[in-house]
Amino acid sequence: MHPLILPVLAAALVLALLAWPLRALLRRRQLRQQPFPAAWREILRQRVPYFRQMPADLQLQLKKKIQVFIAEKPFIGCAGLEVTDEMRVTIAAQACLLTLNRRMGYPQLRQILVYPAAFVVDRVHTHGGGVQQAQRQALLGESWTQGQVILSWNDTVQGAATTNDGHNVVIHEFAHQLDQESGSANGAPPMAGGAARVRRWTEVFSTAFNQLQQQLAQGQPTLIDGYGATNPAEFFAVVSEVFFEQPQQLAAQQPALYAELCSFYRVNPMSW
User: Fold this and answer.
1) Does any domain span residue 223?
2) pLDDT at 121
């Protein structure tokens, strides 16, 4: 082998690695400049009611994000389901809602798996004394650290159609994806603002999480679904649903929590 071949190959590899982010930026710019398909606008009108409530600038931003999301993220139908544009646009619109006013959107997400309805998974639970028990669970959605989100299409449609009940499986699972960008979900997704911001987030969320657990233990009614008391990761995902779907109630009952979510998501749904 010629002595210059290896250095040349190494230099070419470095240049290729440096050029990839630039190519991605240029491709996304081209996608955002394309007209939003009329058929997709009709899907938004029929399937995503909250879109019409949003300010015009956020509507435009969301449409551009949908175009990039659908171009970059593969959708895979499961259990015989054939993925359609209606599914892609409906899911992408709700997922991109969480990334408004952000440059990046789910960099680690590799694919979205879509089932016709609730899907069954086998889990092994370890009980006291190390006894393991296999259990089957029916799920509406799931988010994996390997860059996959799994969704039930039936429940995706229901969650999008009812915008004020605080339940939305797409928002829930994609909130987990944001949380998982730094590893396992723990209720503290990566955020700007340094250590002081993280401390404030931790204090506010810990207080609200403990309050929810106490309310449930005392049999009190709660705005935040009781599933949020499972652990901090589920609490973040559940309150994200409430933040986007019941902002007035959340702000009234948990003003500090609502303020933290406004800062993190960079939007104020109460103004829509």
Assistant:
1) yes
2) 79
Average pLDDT, the chain: 90
| Neighbour-count burial of 215, counting CB atoms closer than 10 A to its CB (0-12 exposed, 13-18 middle, 19+ buried) | middle
- For CA atoms 245, 249, 251, 253, the dihedral sign is negative
Tell me: pLDDT of 254 over 80: yes
CB-CB contact of 135 with 123 (8 Å)? yes
Q: Is residue 253 assigned to a domain?
A: yes
> Does the predicted model carry a pTM greater than 0.85?
yes
CATH number, domain at 267?
3.40.390.10
Model confidence pLDDT, tens digit, residues 1-18: 556 566 555 544 545 445
Radius of gyration of the CA atoms of the chain, in A: 21
Task: Identify the domain containing residue 234 by its residue range.
Answer: 186-272
- What's the 3-state SS for 161-206? HCCCCCCCHHHHHHHHHHHHHHCCCCCCCCCCCHHHHHHHHHHHHH
**What is the count of structural domains for the chain?**
1
